[in-house]
Design brief:
This protein is an all-alpha fold. The protein has one domain. The chain is built from 12 helices and no strands. The two termini are 17 Å apart.
């Protein structure tokens, strides 16, 4: 659980994405995409740094949405309600099952600072149902540090680590998406990551032919542009929905 400092916790309403950034349904150029993505990132940055009374519930909601999106990638059928039950109804110390463990990995991402340690990587890989040896995890940690320390824009660094994971382990795409959110948070210097990118993995921005074709996996042509973060207009609208959700939490307190 995220515990807030009562002296600094705030009930202030969350920021909203400017209406002009939401006006267009499509973008016609990279410049338009960057302009809208910048507006959305500005709102998300404020949300990511918020020490607000609704912050903990909001982050848990994001983790649940990413876990639900992960089920399709993992070949499972659990929805948000089933995932919530798998986690909340599991006795302390008991195995929550494969779906519950994946949800737990996203919860961990939302609750902890975006640091990378060998033990953490090993634990997350296990929760995602992946077997990685110590040497491979050490190499992965080095790659994460190299990418995060590069001069790439944070969204491109996030795309790069996802692509690297899939190149090394094609069966570990889910881990790549998890790490992409972590690297994005490192690049933007957020105190904790926001589970976001996985929810877009099957969306139109990550598909060929203008959103109606084949899914673009990490590392494939067009992936980096789609991951600018997480794709212009969709990000603007997504962050606006997040702000509305957070506002609803504020109203219920």
């Amino acid at each position: 659980m995220i515990r807030l400092d009562p002296a600094t916790a705030s009930l202030a309403a969350p920021p909203a994405v400017p209406a002009w950034a939401l006006a267009a349904s499509t973008v016609s150029s990279d410049a338009d995409a960057a302009f809208q993505a910048g507006a959305a990132l500005g709102a998300l940055d404020t949300l990511a740094r918020a020490q607000a009374a609704w912050a903990g519930a909001w982050r848990q909601r994001l983790a649940l949405k990413c876990a639900a999106a992960s089920m399709r990638l993992a070949g499972r059928a659990e929805d948000e309600a089933a995932l919530r039950d798998a986690w909340q109804l599991c006795p302390s110390g008991a195995d929550p099952g494969p779906a519950g463990a994946i949800f737990g990995a996203w919860r961990q991402l939302a609750l902890q600072p975006p640091a990378v340690g060998a033990d953490r990587l090993a634990k997350v890989a296990e929760m995602l149902g992946l077997a990685w040896d110590d040497e491979a995890l050490a190499d992965l940690r080095t790659k994460i540090e190299d990418v995060a320390g590069s001069r790439r824009q944070a969204p491109l660094a996030a795309a790069a680590i996802a692509a690297h994971v899939v190149a090394v382990r094609p069966d570990a795409e889910l881990f790549g998406w998890w790490l992409a959110d972590l690297v994005l948070a490192q690049g933007l210097r957020w105190p904790r990551p926001l589970p976001l990118l996985m929810t877009q993995a099957f969306g139109p921005a990550f598909r060929t032919d203008g959103g109606g074709g084949k899914r673009i996996r990490p590392g494939e042509k067009g992936f980096e542009r789609a991951a600018k973060p997480p794709q212009c207009d969709a990000l603007c609208r997504h962050s606006s929905r997040l702000a509305s959700f957070a506002d609803g939490v504020v109203g219920s307190i």
